[in-house]
Amino acid sequence: LPVKDLSSSTVQRQRRELQLLMVELKDREVELNTMAASQDQQHQAWEQDRQRALVLEQRCARLDEELRKRNEVMRAVTKHVCVVESREREVQMKLSKAKQKLCELEEKQEHIIGKCRDYEGSDHLSRCSLQHLLGGSRLLKRLSLPNRTDPVSSCRIADPLYVHECLRAHHLCPNTSLLKAGADPPTSCLHPSATQPASQADDAL
Fold first, then answer.
1. What are the sequence ranges of the domains in the chain?
2. In a designed cystine with 173, which of 4, 25, 132, 189 is the match (CB 3.0 to 4.6 A)?
3. Rounded distance between C-alpha atoms, residue 133 and residue 137, angstroms
4. Where is this region: Disordered (predicted)?
């Protein structure tokens, strides 16, 4: 009997231990299932994160490419702007030089216009002097013609003082007609002191 009791108690004890082990195994199984589910969820989350990272990496690559292209465009535009600014400065310099040259040309034009006016005035004076000289030469020519019908006039023409008075009268009165050969010079154009020698010459003749 004691042996039987010992064996039965051993069996019962082992049964209890087996039951405890089964309960513990079930608990461990639940824990492992929970851990596996958690790891599965973590793996899915990691996969999602990895996909998102890949998408972001591709997007960053596209953005980097776009940024590189835009940087190239900006460098080209900046270079073009520098060239345009340089050309604009050159154009401004040329424009300022052209304005300065235009001012110089305007000053030269005014100077030339003033000279033209002076030349016109001197030309007018030259024409008047030429007309006076032509009138005097014609008068001398007419005075030098011999007047056979009037001996008194011939004597007057031979008198140099009379010829001088006639020329002086013609220059003082250019609007009058040419003096006839042998005629007295107009007293209105001669100074009274100038007419006295001519009358004295007439009396002497």
1. 145-204
2. 189
3. 6
4. 184-205
